[in-house]
Every structure is written in structure tokens, then in C-alpha cells.
Design a protein that fits this description.
Radius of gyration: 21 Å
Strand content: 15-25%
Structural class: alpha/beta
Strand order of the largest sheet: 14-13-12-11-10-9-6-5-4-3-15
Order of helices and strands: EHHHEEEEEEEHEHEHEHHEHEHEE
Number of domains: 2
Number of helices: 10
Number of strands: 15
CATH architecture of the largest domain: Alpha-Beta Barrel
CATH class of the largest domain: Alpha Beta
Helix content: 25-40%
Shape: elongated
Largest sheet: 11 strands, mixed
Bound molecules: iron/sulfur cluster
CATH topology of the largest domain: TIM Barrel
Length: 359
């Protein structure tokens, strides 16, 4: 049987072509986009502005719901983790993080991840699949619908971060297609400035990304200021070392536009990469490469069995931050969210278990 087309990830032209092939007038394409991404509907039957015959025709050959939510976990701090599954049965995890001013949704770009960052549980899964643009967009739709209900706006707007499972720059085309779809004014209308993409350091893609007209904000996960240590913690460093990474980061910085943000992420592991000497080395590295428009986000490690690391103490984190600031590098400490439900940074590994709620 021919597989149903997943329309949630169809760009405008693709949708027009599809509608034309069905023998329908072009304006139907706009209506479908409005229904799928503006009203966030996942069943064609709910698109009551379409004639019944077209709804039935669409249901036969297409789908608006390729992800299935298997479980939802709710943290004591309000964070929610969604464990979903693709049509092929691969796990997809998405995290909703409420804050006072704005919600953030942390989405996945891949099922599992091919990189082997030592402090990350997702690495243990290996790569299961690249997510399609439709699977990326549908994660956002599912979370917004769960929190606010179909058709309702998020009152404070939504920020997105590609910091769930996967290395987004190894699924570059689908990621960029999803970014275009997310920005549609008659759709979800989440513009690139509200999206941050985090990479472990895929240097050629950072360069390609830098040359884009419309692009999300960039975060680079660094987590060690020497090649010796980074080779161990983030083995991607053996492919592109710190000098190459800093050079690509410089290229991005030179094209930074007003309103865009540029961040280095540094996961602090107790006794491994959190010493005052390494804080000074990090500041020195960024200054040597002239990376003075970037800020550093310090992320205390989120412990997860069987990872062998512990988070740095509050005092150590504060000292590390103070050293960076004294060197003129803006530094911020990221508050861990959803640790109790395995939703925090580095903890996504399709875990099931207690604290489960009805979806
Ligand atoms: S930290 Fe990110 S890039 Fe590294 S293994 Fe985990 S998911 Fe992959």
C-alpha cells in the first residue's frame, strides 16, 4: 500500500502541486495550510471549511498526524516531556518549559543521535532516523495543542530551541524546511528570531548557516576549552578541532544581525571541566578568536544513570561564571528544568517510567 503523504511538512509550492494533482483549485492549498498550521488541526475531518468530498479524498491519500504520543511526563516544576513515536516506530522526545514571560519548546531534530558526547544520554541510542520537516513541525503542534488546545494562541508567544535529541546540522535540509514552515504568517508564525539551533560543532554547516538570509539564532556546544579534553567529552572534536570551530564561529559572528543571539553552551561536569584554570582558558580562547559578541551559557550537568558524571557544586558554578565575567565574557547559568522526569538537557533517551500522566 502506498504510504500516505504527511502534509504537515509540505511547503507552500509542494502543497499547491499536490492540490493540483488532486484536481482541486489552488486556493484549497491555502485553506489546508491554515487548517494544519494556523489552527493546528491533525485530522482532515476537522477542516470544516473544506467540502466533505475533499476531506474524504485527503484522508485517503494523506495524513496530518504522523507522530503518536506514547506518554507525557509532568515535572514538579511544570516542565512536560512528551515521548512520541514516528510512523516507523522511532522515539521522538519534545519538552515544554513554561516560564513567567514566555514558553519554550525544546524539539528534536533526529531520533537518537549519531554523535557520542560523553555527558549525554541520547548518545547511547545512536542514530535511529533523521526527522522529516513534518515530524519536526508536528512536535510543536502537539505540544501547543496539549497546553492550549487546538486553534488557541499561546498567550505569551513561544520560543523554540533545537536542543532535544539529535544534531540539527546533520539534518540540515529538513531543519531549514521546518524553520520556513514555522515562520508562515498564516501558520504557526514562529519566526526564526524566536528559534535557537544548537550544534555540537559541524563546522561546514556552521559556515553554510552563516551565509543564510533568514536563519535562527545559533548556539555552539563547546564544553571544553582544550582539544585534549574536548576530544574526550565531544569526540566530534577529532573531526573538527577547536581552531576550526572557532574560525567557523567567527564567520557566524561576522554576519550577526541586530536581534540575533550567539551563544556558547558549556556543560559543567564536577571535577572534569569546571576548574578555575579551565574557565580562564575558555575566556582566553574566545578572546583570542575575537568572539566577543557571544555569551556563554553554563549548564550544570544533569545526572542520569549510567553516565559517570556529577553536576558541579553551586559554588564551583558561581566561581566559573565570575572568572568569565571578570575576563569580559557575559556568562549565565541555565537553571535545570524537568530533571525529575528525564526532560533536562542531556537526559533525553526515550525513558519510560513513573510520573506518567494522561495525554
Ligand atoms: S549532546 Fe546533542 S549532539 Fe551530543 S550526543 Fe547528545 S544529542 Fe547528540
Amino acid at each position: 500500500m502506498e504510504q500516505k503523504r504527511h502534509l504537515t511538512g509540505f511547503g507552500r509550492e509542494e502543497m499547491e502541486e499536490f492540490i493540483k494533482d488532486l484536481g482541486e483549485p489552488r486556493f484549497r492549498s491555502k485553506q489546508i495550510i491554515k487548517g494544519l498550521r494556523g489552527h493546528r488541526l491533525r485530522e482532515f475531518g476537522e477542516m470544516t471549511d473544506l467540502p466533505l468530498a475533499l476531506r474524504e479524498k485527503l484522508a485517503e491519500c494523506a495524513t496530518a498526524s504522523s507522530l503518536t504520543v506514547r506518554s507525557r511526563y509532568v515535572s514538579i516544576d511544570g516542565t512536560r516531556r512528551y515521548l512520541m513515536e514516528t510512523a516507523a516506530g522511532h522515539p521522538v522526545e519534545t519538552v515544554y518549559i513554561p516560564t513567567a514571560n514566555r514558553d519554550t519548546i525544546c524539539f528534536s531534530s533526529q531520533s537518537g543521535c549519531p554523535l557520542k558526547c560523553e555527558f549525554c544520554l541520547t548518545a547511547k541510542l545512536g542514530l535511529l532516523s533523521n526527522l522529516t520537516a513534518g515530524e519536526i513541525v508536528e512536535q510543536i503542534i502537539i505540544v501547543l495543542n496539549d497546553v492550549y488546545g487546538e486553534r488557541n494562541e499561546a498567550p505569551h508567544g513561544t520560543n523554540l530551541v533545537a536542543m532535544g535529541a539529535g544534531e540539527p546540522f546533520l539534518n540540515f535540509e529538513n531543519l531549514l524546511k521546518a524553520v520556513d514552515i514555522l515562520a508562515e504568517e498564516d501558520g504557526l508564525f514562529i519566526v526564526p528570531r524566536r528559534i535557537t539551533v544548537s550544534t555540537a560543532g559541524i563546522v561546514p554547516k556552521i559556515r553554510e548557516f552563516s551565509a543564510l538570509e533568514a536563519r535562527p539564532n545559533l548556539a555552539i556546544s563547546i564544553s571544553a576549552p582544550t582539544d585534549e579534553l574536548r576530544d574526550v567529552l565531544m569526540p566530534i572534536n577529532k573531526r573538527w578541532n577547536l581552531a576550526e570551530l572557532m574560525s567557523a564561529a567567527g564567520e557566524f559572528q561576522s554576519t550577526l544581525r541586530r536581534g540575533e543571539t550567539f551563544t556558547f553552551e558549556y556543560v559543567l561536569l564536577s571535577g572534569v571541566n569546571d576548574s578555575p584554570a579551565l574557565a580562564r582558558k575558555l575566556a582566553g580562547l574566545l578572546k583570542r578568536h575575537g568572539l566577543l559578541k557571544a555569551k556563554v551559557n553554563l549548564i550544570p550537568h544533569n545526572p542520569a544513570d549510567p553516565l559517570p558524571y556529577e553536576p558541579s557544586s553551586k559554588e564551583t558554578v558561581a566561581d566559573f561564571k565570575a572568572i568569565l565575567e571578570a575576563e569580559g565574557i557575559p556568562a549565565f547559568v541555565r537553571t535545570p528544568r524537568g530533571r525529575d522526569i528525564f526532560a533536562a538537557c542531556g537526559q533525553l533517551a526515550a525513558r519510560t517510567g513513573s510520573a506518567e500522566a494522561d495525554v
